[in-house]
Design goal:
Length: about 150
């Protein structure tokens, strides 16, 4: 069973991921990098609300999902591979449009999942409620699901 760490001040992202993936992964949430140092996760999901850089250099996940607007953080986490998400064009996962109750999520370059499968560049049109979550939170969830080999439908 793969260990998945969710660096966030809240536990709702880990709960949502666990609900979507079943019991195939072991999720744990931490609010500070030190909480991941003793149990290095295969996937480290860094949520948009993650705070505290001290100790991030000691983190060595196999894969890290990082907010694209946190260059200092991305440079400190020593992952074998990293996938960025955010509203900027340079991120691996970004939005290409946001209209009404839907959003188009674009994968700008292929990524390799935890199981080693390749996901090609593509777009998904997904339902979106701006009252329920920010665009960055949605991108983080989508990125984690893709890296965990989960369907977005």
């Amino acid at each position: 069973m793969e260990l998945v760490g969710v660096w966030s001040g809240r536990e709702d992202l880990a709960r949502r991921l666990e609900a979507r993936t079943g019991r195939n992964f072991c999720f744990f949430t931490g609010a500070h990098p030190a909480e991941f140092a003793q149990r290095p996760p295969a996937l480290l999901v860094i949520a948009p609300d993650a705070t505290g850089l001290a100790g991030a250099g000691a983190l060595r996940p196999r894969v890290a999902l990082v907010p694209g607007d946190s260059g200092a953080l991305a440079g400190r986490v020593r992952a074998v591979s990293a996938v960025s998400y955010g509203l900027g064009r340079r991120n691996t996962l970004t939005l290409s449009s946001l209209e009404g109750g839907s959003v188009a999520v674009a994968l700008q370059r292929e990524l390799v999942t935890l199981s080693g499968a390749e996901v090609e560049r593509q777009e998904w049109v997904l339902p979106y409620d701006p009252e329920g979550q920010s665009p960055e939170e949605l991108l983080c969830l989508v990125g984690a699901l893709l890296l965990l080999d989960q369907s977005l439908g």
